[in-house]
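Format is sequence with structure; example below:
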Amino acid sequence: MTQPAMREEAVITLPSDQEASGRTFGREEIDELIKVIESGTLTCTKGTACTRLEKRFGELLGAKYVIACASGSAAVHCAVAAIDPEPGDEIVTTPITDMGALAPIVYQGAIPVFADVDPYTGNVSAETIAACLSPRTKAIIVTHLFGNPCEMGPIIDLAASRGIPVLEDCAQAYLAREGGKLVGMHGDVGCFSLQQGKHITTGEGGLCVTNDPEIARRIRLFVNKAWGYGDPNPDHYFLALNYRLTELQGAVGLGQIEKLQAGVDQRRRMADRLTSQLQGLAGIETPRHAADAEHVYWRYCLWVDENEVPGGSPALGAGLKQQGIGAAPRYIQKPAFQCQVFAEQRTFGTSRFPFTLARPEALDYTPARFPGVFKCLHDILVLPWNERFTEEHVDFIAAAVRNQHARLRGSR
């Protein structure tokens, strides 16, 4: 007999990365901000905070060149601009990502070609990318979703065999490793976000990393309206924007970056604890990652089989919300290619540019082509996560998941 759902009051308030309870701001950031304010110089073209942030991040990743910019979206835009696609060129990417990682492709006149994903990670693979390649492919963008690295070895081999650059969207994956190498250092450019909810934050901001001096120079120019600061005879060399980070943000970043490793370590420890407590629940999949990968848990995700758990991810998520846990079914409501900007080609006025230059195959968004995408979004349940979660928080979440799981299965 179906049992009525009962509202259960939360006994613990979880830390939130949208305010102080889930963030690590403190004296370090304040001291750096004071230096900047007292200097009177808030622009990165004259100050030192952003330069020091770039240098420190380069040391942390082992990158020769780091360029700070205005946002994670700007970082992706800089990376795309650095490879300089011709109008109508194609960039293979994922449909499970933030629009900020896709709009830059269109702004540079290129066509996003969407690859399918692994249904249990949400990541693209060499196999799904290969199915999308064409003579017009200019680049591949891989997104390390939720902090779980893509399997980069086969992807890099595939790209190298075709002479195609690889751009890594690492917005959710600070210090994640795959094959012993930090993400962002596998491909030609790594793009990071400093937005409020990321592993470290300056409110908004981004970082690009590369070991290629020509790419680094083009990114640096693109951040600065293509003005050649320091050149003997500078000019605006090509069309570009002002994507600079301010010294105030750079100061906060300097305080944050020294806390990054400890924050990642805590996220991983607590994730391991939660996984151990949820093992064996029928119809619940805990996060998967490759044997040689290190997941850094921007968020902790469950995959819920509705055949075993009545109502699936939405029902489990609703039950958790009743206990004060802001669980998000689906992560995004629909694949990116179903959003109006792509489905209806709403771009520049009524021109539909650059989609007017696309091959019909590149715009084939038939659902049957994306079984992994639709299964992933159907099954996934995204749990809140940050570096301030403790054993008490994790045990509370685990108990709530088990409670709601038992309730739902008891209603069958």
